[in-house]
Amino acid sequence: MVWVPRVDEIPLSIAFLDNNIIYFLFKVKGLGTETLSKMCKGEIVGLKGPLGRGFIVEDYTKSVLVIAGGIGIAPIPFFIYRSKYKKLDVVWGVKRREELFDLNIFNQDIGDRYRLFMATEDCSYGFCGTALERLKNIPLEDYDIILAVGPQPMLKGVCEYIRNTNLEAYVALETMVKCGIGLCGSCFIRSSNKLLCIDGPVFRCDEVIQHLGKTNNSKNI
Hints:
Layout: E1 2-4, E2 8-10, E3 14-18, E4 21-24, H1 31-37, E5 46-47, E6 63-69, H2 76-82, E7 87-94, E8 115-120, E9 127-128, H3 131-135, E10 145-149, H4 152-161, E11 168-172, E12 188-189, E13 194-195, H5 196-199, E14 202-204, H6 205-212
Parallel strand pairs: 6-7, 6-10, 7-8, 8-9, 10-11
Antiparallel strand pairs: 1-2, 1-5, 3-4, 11-14, 12-13
């Protein structure tokens, strides 16, 4: 949780951590992220965390496929850096080529740890289509685990697509988060008894498939 003094407190994924410097990737969507984007060196922000449950796959003999939609790519550079899996592939889908950037911007050591498949909805770069459509062109039998982070319709599509397979599948949800420590109840996951801030934001598909099927007034940051 990142506190922007006198403005807002917002949930952000850690994109990278190096020499006691924490990096965040975010898209400007509201007053909190807009103010944060304009802050300069020496200004003060507050940090609370790390909180919740992230992508933790301890068995490095597994083959992992990551599906990221838009700014859902934010936590993936750090995930790649810490991974030692037998195989790690990343599918990243955006609307336009201008939204893409080099995932090695924080550390050049991650370049040989993964393969990246890009997709653009306007067909300006890479695969022509969405991240979900790109997923449907990849042989799932090559993987043991799928991790997905991005817009809710994409997460729902991923869970439905792999439902009848033997794959382990995990999704990172977004919803309104206020306190981040399970006190206020604002991030209650409908159709469950779970809170996003302490039980998530990462859940197995079978834990939240009913929630994904509902319209969600999420706070996108």
